[in-house]
Write a structure and sequence with these properties.
Strand 1, helix 1 and strand 2 form a beta-alpha-beta unit. The protein is of the alpha/beta class and 530 residues long. 36% of the residues lie in helices and 18% in strands.
Length: 530
């Protein structure tokens, strides 16, 4: 199918001038609208304004521009049906063989602080999606281009194909176009569905923060890469990104070196990164199988790494390491000196010297993740035939929120360690028990069916690592249902406990703490992680 006339109307003008120049050089007539037409004309291209083409001016503040039979007839007419071609001829409608359209920036508009409903509504495109869908529906007779990344592909094929595009190319472009409009409508539907009631009465006022759970949830993700396999080699897998990942999320990573990431690498990297970036002080987090096996804060990253590694040198082998600051050569040399095998190393930045030394470890995956703390989206989990959605667990306790429930009150140093332990426990699979002291984890018990077993495992881990628990603090992600867990941690040497409270046996548990001379505080909130 030879391209003789193209209609170009885009909001994202990246590369459109060069695309239009390429079309014009091939003898393609150009139609355009508004700002796109002005851009092309200012570059010396011959462009027919859509109002001149249809005989109707743009009207209603630009709400009606391309909704005209001369536009949609030229796009939708089937070239293989004589009756359609006769109709075009009877009404003096030329064919439009290529449509290049992308849509009003609705997503960017509603992302602005204080955006009003009226502003959002005016950035809902009507004519654009209609043209996109028309051309995509009639891919047999017209080509639709919605992605600037496809400009070069289209021009190259036109040049080598004597001004024509293959049917397979037009079909691929049509599939992408329907995805484009589906996502656009999903964005609008999600945003409007989530708005608070009554806003329609006052469109000039700023739109309220959307409700967390819209009645109908539309999701859109881009496939970033196809992975070698999933959790196990017999499972297939891929990694999908949100169209606009939140700042500071693992999806914004840039891989500096190493083998391609696996399904488990990405999942564990997310766990490590989400944990480490919650700390203000220099921090290191080592994750193995989605659980932190070593976490520490210190005056610098090197010290934080040394402390985190001590927690569990066995589990740290083959783990994921995340830092919340720039990694320098001292940190890399320390890892090398320990012969610490690492699957993935993550940080906001690496010094040039660190990169040079890391480059010798060709298989080590090194990820740079720009810092950021953008609002997290809903957390989603698939179940059979459905989807669970929840707001993220962003709750962090402050010292003034702690409730001392024992005869002995914790010291300021113990409070500092308890808050650290509590923050780590949030990232450990339930049932979670975390022994800490001096700004580092000493023993971690994760994912057990009973809390007392998690307590025993955490103390055994510390003993195996040669770490003394005398005077340590313990965080429990949920309440102790019986006193046995307190008995075990006291026997291990703990001196203070932080836990949510709320058990029907709280008095029994508090009595156990008093019997052992422990300080215990309640937070009033738990941190289950399944």
């Amino acid at each position: 199918m030879k391209i003789t006339q193209a209609l170009i109307s885009v909001s994202d003008k990246k590369g459109v001038l060069e695309f239009a120049q390429g079309l014009a050089a091939l003898g393609v007539k150009l139609l355009s609208t508004g700002g796109t037409a002005k851009l092309l004309q200012s570059a010396g291209l011959t462009v027919t304004e859509i109002g001149d083409y249809t005989g109707f001016p743009e009207m209603l503040d630009g709400r009606v521009k391309t909704l005209h039979p001369k536009v949609h007839g030229g796009i939708l007419a089937r070239r293989d049906l004589p009756a359609h071609l006769e109709t075009l001829k009877a009404h003096s409608i030329p064919t439009i063989d290529l449509v290049c359209v992308n849509l009003y920036p609705f997503r960017e508009t509603v992302a602005k602080p204080g955006v009003t409903l009226a502003e959002a509504i005016e950035n809902i495109d009507i004519g654009g999606p209609a043209m996109v869908r028309s051309a995509a529906k009639n891919y047999a007779g017209a080509a639709i281009v919605t992605d600037p990344a496809d400009y070069a592909l289209v021009l190259n094929e036109l040049k080598t194909g004597d001004g024509a595009l293959k049917l397979s190319t037009r079909f691929d472009l049509a599939k992408k176009a329907f995805t484009h409009t589906a996502r656009y409508d999903s964005m609008i539907a999600n945003w409007l569905t989530a708005e608070a009631e009554g806003i329609e009465a006052e469109p000039e006022k700023p739109a309220p923060t959307p409700a967390q759970f819209p009645e109908r949830l539309q999701l859109a993700f881009d496939r970033a890469e196809t992975l070698r396999y999933g959790e196990n080699p017999h499972q297939q897998a891929a990694f999908y990104r949100e169209p606009a990942p939140r700042p500071g999320s693992i999806a914004t990573y840039r891989q500096l070196q190493g083998k391609e990431l696996s399904y488990n690498n990405i999942a564990d990297s997310d766990a490590a990164w989400e944990c480490v970036k919650t700390f203000a002080a220099p921090a290191c987090v080592i994750v193995k199988h989605a659980n932190p096996c070593g976490v520490a804060i210190a005056s610098g990253l090197l010290e934080a790494y040394e402390k985190a590694f001590k927690t569990d040198t066995v589990s740290a082998f083959g783990g994921i390491i995340a830092f919340n600051g720039e990694v320098d050569i001292d940190v890399v040399e320390a890892m090398s000196a320990k012969k610490h095998f690492v699957e993935v190393l993550i940080a906001p930045a690496f010094t040039d010297a660190a990169k040079a030394l890391l480059s010798a470890k060709q298989n080590l995956r090194v990820l740079e993740v720009p810092p950021g703390h953008g609002a997290r989206a809903l957390e989603l989990k698939r179940v059979g035939g459905g989807l669970l959605a929840q707001t993220p667990d962003n709750f962090n306790i402050e010292p003034e929120n702690l409730k001392v429930v024992t005869q002995k009150a914790p010291t300021p140093a113990q409070i500092e360690d308890m808050l650290f332990a509590w923050r780590v426990a949030k990232f450990v699979k339930s049932n979670a028990i975390v022994f800490c002291g001096g700004g580092m984890t000493l023993g971690v018990g994760a994912g057990q069916m009973s809390r007392v077993d998690s307590t025993r495992i955490a103390s055994i881990k510390a003993k195996n690592a040669g770490l003394a628990l005398t005077g340590s603090v313990v965080a429990s992600d949920a309440f102790f249902p019986f006193r046995d867990g307190v008995d075990v941690l006291a026997e291990a040497g703990a001196a203070a406990v932080i836990q949510p409270g709320g058990s029907v046996r709280d008095e029994e548990v508090i009595a156990a703490a008093n019997d052992h001379g422990l300080a215990m505080v309640f937070t009033g909130a738990r941190h289950f992680r399944h």
